[in-house]
């Protein structure tokens, strides 16, 4: 599933490619991707409108229309947004926005879990998983002290699932939580409330660092992620532990291990991470 760096990359591409463009036609090839409103109402409310403000919140993309309605898109596991010339065929396309300049934005999704909503006036509480999102880890409000508060309040549980809890920290998923823990030298099964101050500081700094670096390289294409032009991100080659079971740790040479934690495959170095 695309995480913060991948969704931020797409958001910046959307700002560059489609902001200011007016929708000539909406083509719905699979109604299941539209969660709200009905398909007919969706077409009526989007056709003729201009894409204006482009935002990201966690793993959600938000496209404000000049009607004050907001398109909300969640790519889930395999969703993709592809910008191309009008009429170009994209595999597994679910929905197409055709613009007046003969370009188009296609929403493609192999597995079909991605979702699109049209909500009025940025009423994000209409989508519970969006309205309840936690802090954005790259914004100033996500201070070291706020991060400490989040960890200290969790008397039970394990640090890696906590980093992935979208109600606490928005946008961090399976890939970047593991990479941040590796750089901080923290085992993914540690109790968050038992971390030392210097460990918390290291994790905080490395989490922000890894997200910023991944954005610089336009994300990691470990699954189906591509950018708006259908190109893969290049950060995958810089990953230290994710997907590298049995390979040598880049720090100490020990074999990287894989465990299942909260239902997700989790990679770590048994020597470097304590």
Automatic annotation (TrEMBL):
**What name has this protein been given in UniProt?**
Formamidopyrimidine-DNA glycosylase
Main function: Involved in base excision repair of DNA damaged by oxidation or by mutagenic agents. Acts as DNA glycosylase that recognizes and removes damaged bases. Has a preference for oxidized purines, such as 7,8-dihydro-8-oxoguanine (8-oxoG). Has AP (apurinic/apyrimidinic) lyase activity and introduces nicks in the DNA strand. Cleaves the DNA backbone by beta-delta elimination to generate a single-strand break at the site of the removed base with both 3'- and 5'-phosphates.
Question: Which keywords does the record carry?
Answer: DNA damage, DNA repair, DNA-binding, Glycosidase, Hydrolase, Lyase, Metal-binding, Multifunctional enzyme, Zinc, Zinc-finger
This protein's assembly is summarised as: Monomer.
Entry EC no(s)? 3.2.2.23, 4.2.99.18
Q: Name any one GO molecular function.
A: zinc ion binding
Q: Is Acyltransferase among this UniProt entry's keywords?
A: no
Against SUPFAM superfamilies, the record matches this protein to:
Glucocorticoid receptor-like (DNA-binding domain), N-terminal domain of MutM-like DNA repair proteins, S13-like H2TH domain
Per UniProt, residues of the Formamidopyrimidine-DNA glycosylase catalytic domain are 2-114
Q: Name one GO biological process term.
A: base-excision repair
Residue ranges annotated as coiled coil are: none
Regions that span the bilayer: none
Describe how the cofactor binds.
Binds 1 zinc ion per subunit.
Catalytic residues, chain numbering: 2 (schiff-base intermediate with dna), 3 (proton donor), 59 (proton donor), 264 (proton donor)
Its recorded reaction(s) are:
2'-deoxyribonucleotide-(2'-deoxyribose 5'-phosphate)-2'-deoxyribonucleotide-DNA = a 3'-end 2'-deoxyribonucleotide-(2,3-dehydro-2,3-deoxyribose 5'-phosphate)-DNA + a 5'-end 5'-phospho-2'-deoxyribonucleoside-DNA + H(+); Hydrolysis of DNA containing ring-opened 7-methylguanine residues, releasing 2,6-diamino-4-hydroxy-5-(N-methyl)formamidopyrimidine
Which positions fall inside the FPG-type domain?
A: 240-274
Q: Which cofactor does it need?
A: Zn(2+)
One Pfam annotation, family name? H2TH
- Kindly give the HAMAP family that the UniProt entry links to this protein: Fapy_DNA_glycosyl (MF_00103)
Which positions in this protein are listed as binding DNA?
Answer: 111, 155
What family name appears in the similarity comment?
Answer: Belongs to the FPG family.
């Amino acid at each position: 599933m695309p995480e913060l760096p991948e969704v931020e990359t797409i958001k910046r591409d959307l700002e560059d490619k489609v902001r200011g463009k007016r929708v000539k036609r909406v083509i719905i090839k699979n109604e299941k991707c539209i969660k709200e409103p009905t398909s007919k109402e969706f077409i009526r409310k989007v056709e003729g409108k201009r894409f204006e403000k482009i935002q990201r919140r966690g793993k959600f993309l938000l496209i404000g229309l000049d009607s004050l309605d907001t398109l909300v898109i969640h790519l889930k596991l395999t969703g993709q947004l592809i910008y191309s010339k009008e009429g170009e065929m994209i595999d597994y396309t679910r929905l197409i926005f055709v613009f007046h300049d003969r370009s188009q934005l296609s929403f493609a999704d192999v597995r079909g879990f991605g979702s699109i909503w049209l909500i009025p006036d940025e009423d994000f509480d209409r989508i519970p998983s969006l309205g309840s999102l936690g802090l954005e880890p790259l914004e100033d409000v996500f201070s070291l002290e706020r991060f400490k508060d989040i960890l200290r309040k969790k008397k039970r549980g394990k640090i890696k699932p906590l980093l992935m809890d979208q109600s606490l920290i928005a946008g961090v998923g399976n890939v970047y939580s593991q990479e941040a823990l590796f750089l901080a030298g923290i085992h993914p099964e540690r109790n968050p409330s038992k971390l030392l101050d210097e460990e918390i500081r290291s994790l905080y700094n490395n989490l922000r660092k890894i997200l910023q670096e991944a954005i610089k390289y336009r994300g990691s294409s470990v699954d189906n992620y591509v950018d708006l032009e259908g190109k893969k991100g290049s950060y995958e080659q810089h990953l230290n532990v994710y997907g590298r079971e049995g390979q040598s740790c880049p720090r100490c040479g020990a074999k990287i291990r894989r465990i299942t934690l909260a239902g997700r495959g989790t990679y770590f170095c048994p020597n470097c991470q304590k």
